[in-house]
Amino acid sequence: MNLIILLRILVKNRYLIVAGGLLMGATIYFLTRNSPKIYDSSTIIYTGIATGFNIESGANQKYDLFGTNAKFDNLINLIKSRETQEEALIRLLAVHMIADETGQDRWGHLDELIPDSIRKKLVDVYSVENTVKNIWNFSNTGESNEIYTLLHSDHDFYGLEKIAKTSIRRIQNSDLISLEYSGTHARIVQQSLEKLTEVFLRKYTGLQSGQTHTVVGYFEERVKESHERLNEAEDDLLTFKKKHHIINYYEQTKFIADQKEKLDKDYQEQIMSLAASKAALAELESRVSIKTSISLQSDKILDKRKRLSDLSSKIAMAQVYNKGSSSQMDEWNQEAEMLKIGLREDVEKLDTYGKSTTGIPLKELLKHWLENAVLVEEAEARAVVIEGQKKDFDEKYKTFAPIGSELSKIEREIEIAEKEYLNNLHSLNQSKLKQQNIELSSNIRVLDQPVFPLKPRSSMTKILWIVGFIIGMVLVSAAIILLEFLDSTIKTPDRAKDFTKLSLLGVFPKVPKDSNSSIDFQFVSNRLIEIIIQRIKLASIKSGREESGPFQINFSSTRDSEGKEYLASLLAEKLRMAGNKVLIFQPYINSNEDGNSGMRKSKIIRSLKSRVENISQSKLFPGVKADPKDTEGVQRIDCIDKYAYEVNNDFFDLKSFGDLMQVDELPVDEYDYVFVLLPSLLNKEFPASLVMQADYSVFVCRANRVWSRADTESLTMFTNTVTHQPTVLLNGSRLDYLDTMIGEIPKQRSKKRRLAKRIITFDFWSDEVI
Fold this sequence. Notes:
Layout: H1 3-12, H2 14-32, E1 39-46, H3 65-80, H4 82-102, H5 110-113, H6 116-122, H7 128-139, H8 146-151, H9 160-163, E2 167-170, E3 176-183, H10 186-244, H11 249-287, H12 290-296, H13 299-321, H14 326-349, H15 362-441, E4 445-448, H16 461-486, H17 493-500, E5 503-509, H18 521-543, E6 551-556, H19 564-577, E7 582-589, E8 634-637, E9 640-647, H20 657-660, E10 673-677, H21 688-692, E11 696-702, H22 709-721, E12 727-733, H23 739-742, H24 751-761
Parallel strand pairs: 5-12, 6-10, 6-11, 7-9, 7-10, 11-12
Antiparallel strand pairs: 1-3, 1-4, 2-3, 8-9
Helix pairs in contact: 2-16, 4-7, 4-10, 10-15, 11-15, 13-14, 13-15, 14-15, 18-19
């Protein structure tokens, strides 16, 4: 089935298609005529997610497309969440219930939804929040209470299924979100959108701040703990330093090391100086006489030397340990100088006018002895003091050596505690900065408040009627096309060839009931008959029977009323007009009285008169006049003779035309064509010997009937009997399927229809002259 045929089918059933569309449209109109009016309200919310300014905004800030889309998804899903929408409905219900109780703005529909006893328990006329809390608690007491049932229904005002249909979308790539809600009550539509927006804004702000409050609280606790550990470590260090008298361990140890090194150096210098002075003193004493030596060891000189030694020790002790005041030091130094002067005077009182054993003047020698003696006393005193100080430093070394490791451990603990404290403090500062940033960037607000819809939405009745009309036509068209595809009748020439497995002899159209049809049926039928005659003549020429005798053609069908007689008469008339003589054998059935033969009942005819159709009255071949010459059982119309033979019980055994004919006055050899019309193959057996003598066989079948397996079996038997390949002649085919036989069907077409056909077939240049 091509597009042209499909369109023809639709055009043919155009009135039915339009009727189906009208019926569907009328049904929709009837069902929607009393539909309630719909009101729409909308609001726009500014989010500031994509382009809003915050603490982190700056020249180097990058736009995170994925993160921005995720934030918008979170925001939209928060509006769509069941808890948000349920709270909005509860708040709306609370406002309405309070208004009902106070009588300010009474909503009559609540009387049917919630019993008065329950409303009085839930409503607090002085507080909306208390009423909301009461409704919320009551709805959570069970699934069978009135509030829970109402909220989880499809109620037009308070149902979750209704508010869930709120349209939420981001306006292009901006920071704006649009919310659209519709319902049957203008005021309630506006209030519903207001409550939904109010609940959403509160939840979004709380969610954003709550995300950072937990983090900030966590780091505040960590900072507190780490600060306490740091304080404990520092207290331990302070206690440790107090216990061991440590101001700065590392400076102190460095100072002690430097002082000890200097002390060691001074000690060595004093020891060397002492040794040199003692040696020089001994040398000098060995040079003086015994008398002088004894004088130098007098009590007076020894006492002064001892006193000078003690003063030297005190001065050395004060210098080394930084003890004593400056006045005391001056006093000791003056006293020492006085002792030195006294010693000098005592030595000078000795006999200093002699000479030493080596001949050196004694006065000069005693002067040197006194100097060395003073140096010895001072050196010995300083050496003793320095040696004592060395012992003190050794004790300090023993004390400070283990303190260092303990101090390093405490300082390491302090360092760890300090780092932990600083890290936690930094994290806390970052969290607070993030919290402040979120609070500044969460400046989400309503840009356009929900509007009060003054006019309802435009009625969809007309649109629905048009859509229903179109759908109705489409459904009817689809049904027609489906039935066309499911149609199992023979219908087309191609299907006739497929069913019968025979080559196609020709097609004859279905006679139109409308005499005023725009199709030139006479031309079409005449042309189709000519095609059939041409093929029969070609078969006759190929068989070589034109000169040797009549060309015998069997006309068969599997069922009655296939049109064999009618088509055979048309073909015979066409051959007669071409100058050929035709003899037609046409059967009639001799039924038994009991009706067991299965054939149509008729009287037994012994003396036959041919049942001839008056071809001259046919509109297909006008102008033909009948001039019959009757013989017994034969009627002649010009060059066409028809003979009605009886189909009796011995019909199967007929072997020749002599057995078939009961008269001898009509020689068969005088005819050019002999048409033998056989009874239907399913209702009566056929004479096999007579059929096998035929030169050509035509199988006739109607286009508007179903082909069955019985048809196939009977046709196969007939085909196997004849000595040639039969052909099929399709009778009553629709004109839509004759394009393959005679080309375009001649008919009157409007310009629009011709143009449409050219467009469909892409035939734009067929009328152009080349």
